Structure formats: C-alpha cells, structure tokens
DNA sequence: GCAAGGTC
C-alpha cells in the first residue's frame, strides 16, 4: 500500500480525486479522513502535528531563572494526537510513503515531521517527496510521476526558526512577567513578530504625542462662466513658495488676510492656463491575503472577521485558499471558463456576460508570484443567498468582483486643470471626469467621485464669488489602521500571510492595544522601551531579516542548524547578562505603566488617583488609589468592559469612559458627571445598613438603564437598595415615616399622584405580597434578588441558614454587606 | 500560563 501524506484534509481529498480519477472511497480513522483507492491511501495533516517545547521541569515560571531556558533542551511533542496516531497506524501498513505537503519552507518542515512519524514505526520503507505549485491534474500527475527526496536542509531552516522563536520569546516573556509580578493571565509577552509590530504602533504614538500643531489658512472661491445658466465650481488660492513650488497653505495670518482682501476687491477672474489630459487607471492585481484584508476593511470588516469569513467560504468550496502571497493567476486558471460559471446568475451574471464580450481577456498580475497557492479567487461554485449569511455573501461578492476587475479593461479619466488670476492672485481648479468606467463598472469598491470643472478657454473671464478664508491646523500623523498595519508588516517581512492578522489580535488580548484603529497602551510603551533599552533586536525588523538570511544559509548548506541557533543563544546570553541588574527598575516601570492605563484622574475627595478597578464579582467600578485611607468610589455601567478615552471632562479632569460591549458599545462619558446626573437625586436620610459606620445616605437614583431606585450613596461598597416605580415623577414630601425616619414619597403619573409612602415600608409590603415566591431571604428589608444571589454564593440560601451564620464571616465573604447588617437581619429573623 | 508557524 502506498501512503500519501498532505498538509491538510482538503488537499488530501483533491489529490486523491485527481490520482484516482474520482473513484476513491473516504473512510474515517480517529476522526481523520482517509481516502482510499486501488492500493493507495491518502491522508491530510492539519499543518504542524508536532510542536517544540521545554521539558516539564522548566514549566514553573517562578522556579526557573528565565536565562536557564537559553540552554534548556527542546523537545518535540505531538500536538494533534489523533492525527499522529492515525499516521502511525497507516504507516505500519504501508510499503511506501509519499510526502505531498505544501511547496514552501514550512511545508518541508511539516513533511519532515511526517517523515519522522513514519520512520518511527516503519524503518524500512522508502519515503519520497513530491512538489507541485497548484493542485491541478497536470501538476499533480507530473509530480507523482517523478518523485524526489525530502530536503532536510530546508526543513532544518524551519526548525531553527522554531527554536529561536521559542527561546527568545519564552525567556524574555518570563523575564518581563516576573520582574513586573504579572503572572497568570496577565503576563507580559515578547516575540520576534509581535514586538516589532507593537513598536510600529508605539513609534507612531510617540510622533502623535510629540506633535505640535501649526496654524495655517486656506482660501477658496467660487468661479462661474458668463453663461446665464452656468454652474459654479470651486477654485483654491495658491502661490509659489521659495523653491517655486505651488503652495496652498498660507502660514501667516496677515498674509492670508491680505490675499482675502485682494480677492474680495474684485468680482472677476481671468483664465490664464487650461491643461487637459487623460489618465488610464489600470485595474487592480489579483487578491493576496493582505490586499484582500485591505479591501474587506474598506467595506467595514476587521482583519480577523475578514479572514474568518474567507476561511468559511473556502471550506464551503466557494473561494480558493485565503492564505496566499501570490498575486499572479496560475496558467491553469482559464478566466473565460470561470466567468462562464457566473453567466445567468441573477445579480452577478450580467457583469460576467459583459466581460465575456471583450476580444481578449488578459488578467492583471501583481509583483509577487509564489508556488504554494493561487491568488484568492472564486472557484465557480456559487452559494445561494440562503446558504450564507449576509456578511459571507458580501465578502464572497467582493472576491468575485475582484476577479472580475482583474480581467476587466482599464478605466480612463479626463483631468482638467484650470488656472485663473484675480487681483494678481492665482487660483486653481482641478476637475476630473470618468470617461471610460472600465473595471469600475464591475468593481464598485473604489471611489469614482468626479469633480466638476467646465470647459473654459485661456483669456476667458469668469465671475468670482463666495470667497472663504479657512483657518486650519496641521494634523498629527494618523494611527495605523489594522489593514495598513498588515501591509506595513508585509513590506517589512514581519510575520506571514497566515499570522499577521492573528498577531494584531494577540496585541489586543495582551492589553497592548485598545480600540480600533489600535492605540497602544502605556503598558505597551513601557514594554517597547524596556526592549529597546536591553533587547533591541527583539523589537527590530532586523531580527527577522537576519533569521531569513540564516535560514537561507541553512537551506543551501552553507550553515547548519547548530551554527545558527548557537549564535542566537549567545546573543541572548549577552542580553540577559545586561538585564540582570535592571530587573527591579524594569519591573517598577511596567507596574507604573499598568496603573497609568487604569488612571482616570484626580480623586475629588483626596487628590490621589482614581483608577478603574474590578470587584471580586467581576463588575467594574472607579476606586481611589488611596484606598483604604480613601474609600471614594464611582459606579460604572454594568454592561461591557471600560475603555479609558483620551478626552477629559473639564469639570472633574477625569478621562471619559467608553463601555465596550460588541454592538452595544457606548460612550459613558465622565463617570463623575454621570454619577452626579444619574445618582444623587434628593438625599432621603441615613442608610440603615452603613449609616452608623460609614455615614452612608439613601438617595433617589436613576440608572443608565433608566430604572430608578433608592440606594446608598456609598454604592458599590454598600449595595443597600429599595425599588421605585419606573414611571412618574417622584416627589419627596415633608412627612416622615416614624419607624424608619425617611420621608414619604409621592409619585406623579397619570391624573392623580399616588402615595408610595416610606420606601422601606413600601418595600416590606411588596415583599409580604411576593414572599410566597422566591427565597424567603427576600422578605428582609433592603434585600433584593442580587443580594440573594450573592448570599447564595456564600452558602446562605434561606433565613435559617442566615440565623446560623457567623456575621463576621458573612461580611468577609460577601461584598457590600456588613456584619452589623447581618446581625440586624438575624434579630428580625 | 511563554513564540511563531501551520490549520479549522
């Protein structure tokens, strides 16, 4: 039996299909598809099925000096056990094995991993390697007709990368995490790809922070031909600067006003120059991963979402493999045949038919031609609208239309530039008109906005009106958007087509960036600074470039894996020698930056910093850094994760807060303003729970959701609350309840106000009515569903449990409930 | 519980 091993299931199925002429059978072994026909079996891996790691004795971060990892042994272990097990079973039964993984460096390494698994159970059989650049009948049959040998040098190049990435990444990650005391989920990560990417963002942020805006002025006028019904058009003032270049920005206010005065003194302008030219606008190249992400991002998809949809469309068979660097269609793609598949389709058919009418169809080509996968294009299989979500359809249509664009004709623009003079000042207008829509007719994602400038002739007099002097400011450079960042990574050679978008996600997960476009946090700034000071290589693109060169040397036999990894280990040893003395300093800086990321501004009570904190129950609130000396807190909305914005509130000097909750994301604003607006309505009296101990008071509050309650001013430290009706205006009367010393409330809704009375009495009556349902704990005054839930979490589910409990331990276990309050409940129960 | 690279 011949065993054929491919990089993924999809490739296994297609290769089996080609080699068997469609006659293969599919079976499943350990959940892995195996394709069988006439003495052959074909199985797909799932990329790497083994991974590198340190032995278990290195796994406790606190027990191992990070520098010890540099010379630690590195083991290979199965990461996809079921696939490895299946491969072992099939290998025992095989008489010959053929490795048919992707034709690139990582594919060679994956092939070597398979080779070792086969050899481990079967020492004798020949193991061959076939290489083909696309899975087509021609290429595959040719490759199998003349099998080759595995390239162990090329595989070793990939192994060197694995080893270097692991050692540098793990050792530096552990060092920074330990120095800052950030273990567990909040470790501080460093890596050859993520750290240079982060540095790109941090460098840009530094430019933005250092930016000093400058004022300038621009002048605009309306010009109109003398005809009766002529439409006016915009023109802009310009002058020649010291180097005789045209300039529109006027840097001096007096100069700008002088120009304004001059232009205001006349109502005519004379055309002095007319320049007409046509420009051809060539259609775009086929999609590689990066350009696909860029186009999808222009229609509102994040990099992650775009790739996830593309992967689904690929798995379903509608588009080709979405991870590719290739921008040249392979020879076996016949555009006419593919266009034919769309003929007759209700929404995509007409454009395909139009394209087929051209005399000759010649697809565009990009600069990069690789051998592993074709550019992303539709397969010819078209989903029905019901088969896919709206988003999937939108992305599918983008891929189809991009393919259309690559086989469509050039567009042609006509540019018209007019220069006029008025009161010795120069004016210019730039018009453009799309004369031949070309590929834009089938690819509507690029702007085709025209700018109207009429036909004028030299010497013609135009009327001049509506002079506007606009004061502007130079703007700081813009942050990288996700797709721009991916393009930059690609041009610097950082990461791969499959990992760049994941790297960006990783930066979000690690707390290094927030919001979109990604903005680096103070933590990110501190980590990049630490790396720049002590381990410059790991934040530089240089490290990847050197690694690429070293890998080429290994692949060509000029160097060995040991040479390259040995040298890399020495470099890292040097870095750790420097780092040792600065451990505390680095840790302090990172810890301080972590606090900066949570800082809202000064505490109105004590002047220390207010920080965004998280209660033991996971909810967010604002608390003072001076705690426990200062117990000032401000509530935050219960939905979402707070993001601190750059904007600050003028009244309180606090940063505004945005609550990130997917589609329900909203800007909360200054928490103190919100608390003042929402919360503290009229104060009713002392809080029965914490009034004695902490001076808590009851107030009428309105929540973000619009619902109202009587609650303690010390929320969230004290969660005493009483319900209020949703509707009607609440009036606080002068009459007081003798038992609870609170004012009686009136509710104005409808024609007649109704008496709610003392809010505690009202609640007790309500509880009495409701007491049959729910926990009997709810019959206690001031105890709502939320408190019942918390008590239940501490093991107290009924009044009986409560009477048996120790008040101090309950107070210790349950946030916002004091021992005194428990005692008062016990007395009543 | 570290990286980056395959793949899902």
UniProtKB/TrEMBL annotation:
<keyword id="KW-0479">Metal-binding</keyword>
<dbReference type="InterPro" id="IPR000380">
    <property type="entry name" value="Topo_IA"/>
</dbReference>
<dbReference type="InterPro" id="IPR013825">
    <property type="entry name" value="Topo_IA_cen_sub2"/>
</dbReference>
<feature type="site" description="Interaction with DNA">
    <location>
        <position position="161"/>
    </location>
</feature>
<dbReference type="Pfam" id="PF01131">
    <property type="entry name" value="Topoisom_bac"/>
</dbReference>
<protein>
    <recommendedName>
        <fullName>DNA topoisomerase 1</fullName>
        <ecNumber>5.6.2.1</ecNumber>
    </recommendedName>
</protein>
<keyword id="KW-0460">Magnesium</keyword>
<dbReference type="InterPro" id="IPR003601">
    <property type="entry name" value="Topo_IA_2"/>
</dbReference>
<comment type="subunit">
    <text>Monomer.</text>
</comment>
<keyword id="KW-0863">Zinc-finger</keyword>
<feature type="compositionally biased region" description="Basic and acidic residues">
    <location>
        <begin position="363"/>
        <end position="375"/>
    </location>
</feature>
<keyword id="KW-0862">Zinc</keyword>
<dbReference type="InterPro" id="IPR013824">
    <property type="entry name" value="Topo_IA_cen_sub1"/>
</dbReference>
<feature type="site" description="Interaction with DNA">
    <location>
        <position position="323"/>
    </location>
</feature>
<dbReference type="GO" id="GO:0006281">
    <property type="term" value="P:DNA repair"/>
</dbReference>
<dbReference type="InterPro" id="IPR006171">
    <property type="entry name" value="TOPRIM_dom"/>
</dbReference>
<dbReference type="GO" id="GO:0008270">
    <property type="term" value="F:zinc ion binding"/>
</dbReference>
<dbReference type="Pfam" id="PF01751">
    <property type="entry name" value="Toprim"/>
</dbReference>
<dbReference type="GO" id="GO:0006265">
    <property type="term" value="P:DNA topological change"/>
</dbReference>
<dbReference type="InterPro" id="IPR003602">
    <property type="entry name" value="Topo_IA_DNA-bd_dom"/>
</dbReference>
<dbReference type="InterPro" id="IPR023405">
    <property type="entry name" value="Topo_IA_core_domain"/>
</dbReference>
<feature type="site" description="Interaction with DNA">
    <location>
        <position position="510"/>
    </location>
</feature>
<dbReference type="InterPro" id="IPR013826">
    <property type="entry name" value="Topo_IA_cen_sub3"/>
</dbReference>
<dbReference type="InterPro" id="IPR034144">
    <property type="entry name" value="TOPRIM_TopoIII"/>
</dbReference>
<keyword id="KW-0799">Topoisomerase</keyword>
<dbReference type="GO" id="GO:0003917">
    <property type="term" value="F:DNA topoisomerase type I (single strand cut, ATP-independent) activity"/>
</dbReference>
<dbReference type="InterPro" id="IPR013498">
    <property type="entry name" value="Topo_IA_Znf"/>
</dbReference>
<dbReference type="InterPro" id="IPR028612">
    <property type="entry name" value="Topoisom_1_IA"/>
</dbReference>
<feature type="active site" description="O-(5'-phospho-DNA)-tyrosine intermediate">
    <location>
        <position position="321"/>
    </location>
</feature>
<feature type="site" description="Interaction with DNA">
    <location>
        <position position="48"/>
    </location>
</feature>
<keyword id="KW-0238">DNA-binding</keyword>
<feature type="site" description="Interaction with DNA">
    <location>
        <position position="165"/>
    </location>
</feature>
<dbReference type="Pfam" id="PF14520">
    <property type="entry name" value="HHH_5"/>
</dbReference>
<comment type="function">
    <text>Releases the supercoiling and torsional tension of DNA, which is introduced during the DNA replication and transcription, by transiently cleaving and rejoining one strand of the DNA duplex. Introduces a single-strand break via transesterification at a target site in duplex DNA. The scissile phosphodiester is attacked by the catalytic tyrosine of the enzyme, resulting in the formation of a DNA-(5'-phosphotyrosyl)-enzyme intermediate and the expulsion of a 3'-OH DNA strand. The free DNA strand then undergoes passage around the unbroken strand, thus removing DNA supercoils.</text>
</comment>
<feature type="domain" description="Topo IA-type catalytic">
    <location>
        <begin position="151"/>
        <end position="576"/>
    </location>
</feature>
<keyword id="KW-0413">Isomerase</keyword>
<dbReference type="GO" id="GO:0005694">
    <property type="term" value="C:chromosome"/>
</dbReference>
<dbReference type="GO" id="GO:0006310">
    <property type="term" value="P:DNA recombination"/>
</dbReference>
<feature type="region of interest" description="Interaction with DNA">
    <location>
        <begin position="189"/>
        <end position="194"/>
    </location>
</feature>
<keyword id="KW-0677">Repeat</keyword>
<dbReference type="Pfam" id="PF01396">
    <property type="entry name" value="Zn_ribbon_Top1"/>
</dbReference>
<dbReference type="InterPro" id="IPR023406">
    <property type="entry name" value="Topo_IA_AS"/>
</dbReference>
